[in-house]
Request: fold
Amino acid sequence: MNTAFFAMVRTDMRLYFGNRKALLIHVAAPIAIASFFGYVFGGAGGGSETSRIPVLIVDLDSSPVSRAVAANLAAEKALAVESSTLEEARDKVRKGKASAALSIPQGFGVAAANALFRGENKPEIGVLFDPSHAAEAGMVKGILMGSVMQAVSREAMSGAGGRASLDRSLRDLEADRDMAPADKRPLTDLLGSLRRWNDYNQNRRAAGESPIAAGVTVPFTTREEAITARQDQPYNSYAHAFAGMAVQFILFMGIDVGIGMLLLRQRGLWRRFRAAPLSRAVLLSSRAASAAVISMLILMVVFGFARVVFGVRAEGSFGGFLLICAAFSLMTASFGLLIAALGNSPEAARGLSILATLLMVMLGGAWVPAFLFPQWLQRLTLFVPTRWAVDGLDAVTWRGLGLASALAPTAVLLGSAALFGVVAVWRFRWEAD
Amino acid sequence: MLEVRDLRKTYGSVAAVDGVSLDAGRGEILGLLGPNGAGKTTTVSIIAGLVRADSGQVRIDGKPLAGDTDPIKRQLGLVPQDIALYDELSAHDNLTLFGALYGISGAPLRLAVAAALELVGLADRARDKVSAYSGGMKRRLNMAAALLHDPQVLLLDEPTVGVDPQSRNAIFENLVTLRERGKTLVYTTHYMEEAERLCDRLVVIDHGKVIAAGTLQDLYRMLPASNLLAIELEHPDRPLELDELAALPEVRSVARSNGVLKIGVSDLARETSAVLAWLGAHGHSCRHLESERANLETVFLTLTGRSLRDS
Reply:
């Protein structure tokens, strides 16, 4: 029995590794695609510059305030700011060439300074945005808020327009009969103080000196730290890309295993195998064993390449990494058996199994990280074994987590392998030709 | 050596095998003759343990065949109807694998592979990939793959389908050699010429049932006539009272197949003229006439009323 088992495993592996097309698809393709995705999503340094959000500014005001707002926005490293006309801006946003356009209306500088203290007659900045980039538009609005506050408060405290606004606000306050005198006094004191501060800065400017402490600023800065395997260990986006692509293409290999068994049946080879005094367990397990070994070898080659070329390492538990790889390999083998059991013909089985694989891969987060899914979908994908494979490989590679983090993914993958295997044995058509 | 008793197998409402019994001894080639779909392959599949019979029994050397791993299966070799080989591997590697399926390894396996290749005349092409073989060579290798474990009973399911006459002859020579070595061969075919030329005894199957069994002579003795007239009428569409023709004292059997009238007679000189006279009297003229000795086709025609080729 052992002789037959190992002979069948050896033959399967020989056939597989003698098939250049299969090697190209299952080994070279994941390496090439993962290399591309890894580069696109940040590379190995973690700090590489991500693409800037293209934003257009339509400055219909051309006041010191609007120019300052535009300058503040242009200084933001997250934005790529360009000036534009309103028509051109609308056209570019529609065509997807800009994520958002900000239209600063005429009189914005004066109106904004007036509204700063009284909260009335606020000017309106038009925000044109591409609905497919809604998240980026939200980010632009946040940055705009800070830029406008800085520009307007600076003008109020040191600009000529700000002095005029303060004078107007003081006059309006004095003329306001609805406000109680007790309420008016502190506000009059505040505006008066600002007026004096403005005068002081104007005098400094007249004397050729820079104004001091003009305007409000954002009262904090941030210190960003990517939490990876170790402190100062940059995020290596190749790790996730290689995990996702390896999972996808190894499942394709699983499809080939199933289709291969259907072809054995079609070519009459299955009759020859069945005629030998071999148990059904030996016949199926030899197929599963060869598929699992091939899958494991592909994983090792793909991650070996990632390690040598892109520095992807099992920063956490290497044992956990091997456990997940082994469990996923077994699951792939069972998946192949399942296809062989449920498929009526190689042709029919191929289409359906590719669809099933692509669904599993997509829902498993191999293409797009699962955290981008809606909450309900994230919960649903917990039933998809590929999600556990990708998350598990992420955990023991770039996240640097220990063996414990590999146990749940391993258990789920082994459970899936058992489930697929049981269904495959149950539904396998032993007598069909 | 091989005893099959009352095998039955139904698929839904169709009885693929309906009470088939047969025996084959050492050094004998037993032919299973029948049209496509007669139940030959199902019978062979049951004997080989590929298909479970609804009822009945298969005994090899007196021992019943039971289960997938029954060691008695080592006594059986199956040559499937399909060319069941890995095209991507060489002949040598194919045979090495198929020998290993029976637990053979090492030097005995190497010897068995060499002997099988020698038998079928492919020793000099052993390292070539099967994909480079001709159809006839593949058929020979297909047979060799069933011989590695030196089975006592060889089940050959239409082993000459689609091969050229030269390869067919080579296969027949191999089978005769195996018979001389005392092997039991069960040979399914729907080619009556093959069955007549090769088989020591025949079992004729139709619709899953054995309709006749015995040696060629036994089967011929079942025939009412030793000759067959094949008459092509000038106007085959014109009505013909077959019952009236069959009632003639000179006529042993009548059938019509593809517009050709097939009439069994014993004395060609006397009875042919009587048949032609009857046809002429009934307004039919004969475009072509030929006679042939009774053969298995005649047997099948007599037993079923249908031609073996047309079934």
User: Anything to note?
Assistant: Residues 242 and 254 of chain B are 7 Å apart (CA to CA). Chain B has a mean pLDDT of 89. The radius of gyration of chain B is 23 Å. Chain B has ten helices and 14 strands.
